[in-house]
Write a structure and sequence with these properties.
- The protein is of the alpha+beta class.
- It has helices spanning about 1-5, 35-45, 95-115, 145-150, 160-175, 250-255, 265-280, 290-300, 305-310, 330-340, 345-350, 355-365, and strands spanning about 50-55, 55-65, 70-80, 85-90, 125-130, 130-140, 180, 190, 195-200, 215-220, 225, 235, 320, 320-325.
- It is built from 12 helices and 14 strands.
- Its EC number is 2.7.12.1.
């Protein structure tokens, strides 16, 4: 067990698959040392039968199912409740312990008002084991990102996107009513409740199929989802200025240093729904200026009043009240990456067969560049 927790150093996405399990999907980038966990246990014997006990509850470790920047996730058997649970083992540093305690507080607050547990992942328990905060969650299914990956990044049906969007917006509204801002909404942090799915023929599959199953796609048996990962949640009493959100889902006001609040979650939801409609992230970039240029390409010019108020870190992206693009682009490849993007409505219509109008109206409302 000491080895097990000693290796819990690199964080958590409910999202990295180990073996053939289906209950948690993979994160996008697998750390080089991810295999150390399994190798280390192999040197000491099988993880099956290892236990960790706290507060008279014993959890039998089954396998590792997730890993990210601040811990690992273990699938465990709760001997008392007689059910599988997911145990998030947090890295034993001050920064991550504090984030874990914030997450526990937020989870208890959410659970108090979401008694049916229909919107957000439910906490079962938590304890401190050798300076590692361990949070016990209900076991859920794969993430939206994992589902996309298993479908070779083919879009979700538009009716499913609408249903997922409805649930996601209801969850965000619920959090905002409690004056909570998630700040890290992305497909990896939204999980299907059930891992069950069906395979159906995909008549839009490529004529040449290099991978097994390319002529079929998966559909979840149930569209029910829950939001996870509340370690970055902020309280919305006032605007904040530090950087939040994973790059692809980051709102323009965050990049420009204008201060952010509840709308940054709404922007992230818009980016997520476009990704579900198209099969790929809307803004695939790692540079601030390129990111802002992509926003203008897809959504139209950023308001001058936003650009003029850019903070000292972002003012270099602005010249005479306008985005300094393409003059300050880092490369021709960067310019090409921006120029190849279609307008939002054209992008959606490439993938949506019917009723594109209402989903475009929704996305345009979510991806507003004007701040209220």
């Amino acid at each position: 067990m000491e080895l097990l927790f000693g290796l819990a150093q690199s964080g958590l996405y409910y999202g990295q698959e180990v073996g053939n399990g289906t209950s948690m999907g993979p994160s996008r980038v697998l750390p080089d040392h991810a295999s150390l966990f399994v190798k280390g246990l192999a040197q000491k014997g099988s993880p099956h039968g290892e236990t960790m006990t706290k507060m008279d509850i014993t959890y039998k470790i089954q396998r590792k199912i997730g890993e990210g920047t601040f811990g690992q996730v273990l699938e465990c058997w709760d001997r008392e409740a007689r059910e599988l649970v997911a145990v998030k083992v947090v890295r034993s540093t001050k920064k991550y312990r504090e984030a874990a305690m914030l997450e526990i507080d937020v989870l208890h607050l959410l659970g108090k008002y979401d008694r049916n547990g229909s919107r957000c992942v439910q906490i079962r328990n938590w304890f401190d084991y050798r300076n590692h905060i361990c949070i016990v969650f209900e076991m859920l299914g794969p993430s939206l990102y994992d589902f996309l990956r298993k479908n070779n990044y083919r879009p979700f049906p538009v009716d499913l996107v609408r249903e997922l969007g409805r649930q996601l917006l209801e969850c965000v509204a619920f959090m905002h009513d409690l004056r909570l801002i998630h700040t890290d909404l992305k497909p990896e942090n939204i999980l299907f409740v059930s891992p069950e799915y069906v395979k159906i023929p995909d008549y839009k599959a490529p004529s040449i199929s290099p991978t097994e199953g390319a002529y079929y796609k998966r559909l979840p048996k149930s569209s029910a989802i829950k939001v996870i990962d509340f370690g970055s949640t902020a309280y919305g009493h006032h605007e904040h200025n530090y950087i939040v959100s994973t790059r692809h889902y980051r709102a323009p006001e965050v990049i420009l240093g204008l201060g952010w609040s509840y709308p940054c979650d709404i922007w992230s939801v818009g980016c997520i729904l476009v990704e579900l409609c198209s099969g790929e992230a809307l803004f695939q970039t790692h540079e601030n200026l390129e990111h802002l240029a992509m926003m203008e390409r897809v959504l139209g010019p950023l308001p001058q009043h936003m650009l003029r108020r850019a903070d000292r870190h972002a003012e270099k992206y602005v010249r005479k009240g306008r985005l300094d693009w393409p003059d300050c682009a880092t490369s021709r490849e960067s310019i090409k990456a921006v120029m190849k993007l279609p307008r939002l409505q054209n992008l959606v219509m490439q993938h949506v067969d019917h009723s594109a109008g209402d989903i475009i109206d929704l996305l345009q409302g979510l991806l507003r560049t004007e701040k209220d």
